[in-house]
Amino acid sequence: MTDQYIFPQIFGKWIFIEGFSNHEMFNAVLRKTNSSWIEILPTSHTETVLLNQGNLIDGKCLDSSANMTFSKNILQISQNNMTATGHFLLSCPDCLVMDFNSTMDEVHIRSLYIFGKSRTLPEAELKQFQKQAECLQYPQPAQYSYDGVTEFCAEKKESSHTVESQDVKDGSQ
């Protein structure tokens, strides 16, 4: 597949449905994740896209944006002290499957994620993804599975905020 063929298909907002990792550091984060979304947007540079994401982890929203380069089905992203290289795997029409190799502080981590345009995917598509994960020798079962109902972090300018219901204690503002 050429970049021109893949690019229009990856743009837009995606909901994180399920994730695998081969390292306990990533697995611990996946297990604490309540919900997550990504948004992939074009930029003025043909091989660069903007990756926005909102992660609800232990009740806290962690939002970030980063440029991601993309060439010949290879993704590259560097953020904080981590670099990741990944590629897209074939999947269902409304799915996005990304397989990443990440390096953080000389630790090498593999991860596999599936995203969908809606809160749920057909069971057959999830089973196919799980077979891909097993074939790629990821530890089973998935460390993250979206429950289909947990709310998402809104797109915010702040890099971190807490999600909780706020009651006005007094009438003054």
UniProtKB/TrEMBL annotation:
GO CC annotation: extracellular region
Subcellular locations according to the entry: Secreted
InterPro entries in the cross-refs: Calycin
Gene3D superfamilies in the record: 2.40.128.20
Predominant subcellular localization, coarse grouping: secreted
Swiss-Prot/TrEMBL keywords: Glycoprotein, Secreted, Signal
Keyword Repeat among UniProt keywords: no
Protein name: Saxitoxin and tetrodotoxin-binding protein 2
Organism: Oncorhynchus kisutch
